[in-house]
Amino acid sequence: MQSSNDRPRGSGGGPESAADHRAVPGRAYVETVPGAPYDVPRYEDPWYDALASGWGESAGLAAAGPALPPVRREAPAEPPRAAGDVYLEVQRSAAFQEVRSRYRRFVGPAVAAFFLWYVAYVVTATTAPTLMARPVAGAVNVAMLAGLGQFLTTFLLTWAYARHARLRRDRAALELRWDTQELTRGARGGAS
Amino acid sequence: MTGDHQTAALVLFSTFVAVTLGITTWVGRHRQGSAEEFYAGGRLFSPMENGFAISGDYMSAASFLGISGLIALYGYDGMLYSVGFLVAWLVVLFLVAELVRNCGRFTLADVVAARMRERPVRIAAGTSSVTVSVLYLVAQMVGAGSLVALLLGGTTEAARTWTVIGVGALMVIYVSLGGMRATTWIQIVKAVLLLGGTVALTTLVLVRFHGDVDRLLRTAAERSGHGEAFLAPGLAYGGDWVSRFDFISLGLALVLGTAGLPHILSRFYTVPTARAARRSVVWSIGLIGGFYLMTIVLGFGAAALVGPDAVRASNAAGNTAVPLLALDLGGGAESTGGTVLFAVVAAVAFATILAVVAGITLASSASVAHDLYASLRRRHSEPRSEVAVARVAAVGIGAVAIGLGLLARDLNVAFLVGLAFAVAASANLPVLLYSLFWRGFTTRGAVWAVYGGLVPSVLLVLLSPVVSGSPQSLFPDLDFQYFPLQNPGLVSIPLGFVAGWLGTVTSPEVPDEARHAETEVRSLTGAGAV
Known about the structure:
The structure holds 2 protein chains of 2 kinds.
Chain A: H1 83-92, H2 94-127, H3 129-132, E1 135-137, E2 140-141, H4 142-187
Helix pairs in contact in A: 1-4, 2-4
Chain B: H1 3-28, H2 35-40, H3 47-58, H4 61-74, H5 76-103, H6 108-113, H7 118-151, H8 157-208, H9 213-224, H10 241-257, H11 262-265, H12 274-305, H13 308-314, H14 321-329, H15 336-376, H16 383-407, H17 413-437, H18 443-462, H19 489-505, H20 513-525
Helix pairs in contact in B: 1-8, 1-15, 3-8, 3-12, 4-5, 4-12, 4-13, 5-10, 5-12, 5-20, 7-8, 7-15, 7-16, 7-17, 7-18, 8-12, 8-15, 8-16, 9-12, 10-17, 10-19, 12-14, 14-15, 15-16, 17-18, 17-19, 18-19
């Protein structure tokens, strides 16, 4: 039974956490950043999804995510447990609760906002066509602006979500994934 | 349509068929026959490739021809479709894509069954997935039949029948021989072709108006005969309150249905991680958003340059607006440019239909083999045989779709797609969201959520003016119409959610804390994901 504490963590802003790693299909890899010590372990594990930068983002931002506490601080002393207990334990850990609340704090208001905005748009278009027909500039009327506004908010929310997930969630989720997998491996008696 | 158009279009289309069959055989060379490979293409696609493939799966002929045609005929009301089809992707991005990638293996039922008693949940989710897929498939087959009739001049019944059969046979070949890998590459090729064609036409429209969008809109409004009203909502859905509620119903179905479409969900399993799934959705939102913006320009362009009267004369539903626009942009019916552009648009439309039906057939054969067959058979067998079942299921689904496609050939395509979205939103979305986010959700709740959405949505369609009681119905001579709306979403989507809640609170089963923890941890971290 061993915990994952002997594995170097990326969340401390270590050199291996730089953002120019790209996930390559079938063989995720991590390049050593110039200037990094050579003893940084390379993960040849296809599960290790390197933090890649997304659209329209400067790559350096990805390293800015704040660090989170690990699931377990020391190796557990109790006998091996079932995998289900591991998941319960991870679920109750502060690190997981933080990831979950970061996800929910973004997604909850965002879903409510775009859904209300969309329903308001559809209902107004069907019930108040005269309001929508009011001209704004040239041939462009309120309805045109509202429709293009839907496109615009969709693009903006997509960008904001991708950015939020990459900066606020991805690193912590990856840490948790490692910890959880090591714990479940331990729970199954060290096999595989 | 002259013989030149037909020849050029046929040559281009045959090229596409040859290329896609080439892809299928090339991909099939190194086939190992594993379920991973057949359903998920080995999970090795990059986010960009998958983003293009998702757009290819989503941008159907109903969008390309149908929405532009609706805009050409009804102006602003057609644009409402574009908005709904795009905004729906926010539901997918925020609530579904990453979590489903982390929790599931091949199908929607995988996600739900992870927390529940597996057999009843798999049967329920598998049944609703197959129902949605078959509805969507019928819509595309009907579209293929009428397109050929319209574009190639083959107005005889025999030409339409043989087109539907031909499209069905091709999609069965793609899917059963090539699996997900071939299907994905076909989607990518098709998405590039479709976007390329759309960009070219949009540029030509804007060049014709010297980049002056205001003049484009004014010309369209003048030519339509409706004046300013053409640029405001109300021409198509502004009549009585029934048609207004019908539109709200359709709007809800569009925005909530996408996240429940089986062939869209199965695309997230073709990438290695949840992060890759998110990035592929970001790609596809960019591509799909750009595409729908361009269909708006094409629609108003067709209204301005071709005119609603000419469009309506060619096809009452407006499906030929874009081909007619291409003919005009190329220099007219007798010119070489017109012939070439027309042929390109026709070939792109065929490619679109072929690729979309292949994607849906694959997803539904996965549901049949992985969910229904695996739950209903008695003893365990090797995964290899599950893939064999999926190949056979693809043939069976192809046959069913051909049969229904021939039966329903007179129904409007965009409308049939709306029905598929309504059923997906009612039967698949509630159970998916509940099992991802509700701690107390139980097996009974899951089963009730699926059937509580599926049965009302299908029943309401049967009792609606679509099936009987109006001159445009499937059976115009009969009258058992008791539900006024054409789209059931407004009623059946809330029913699906209520049924899931009711099943859960009345269930004696105590929700399993540990399995909920497992779903939640896995969905947000990707631990244990395949």
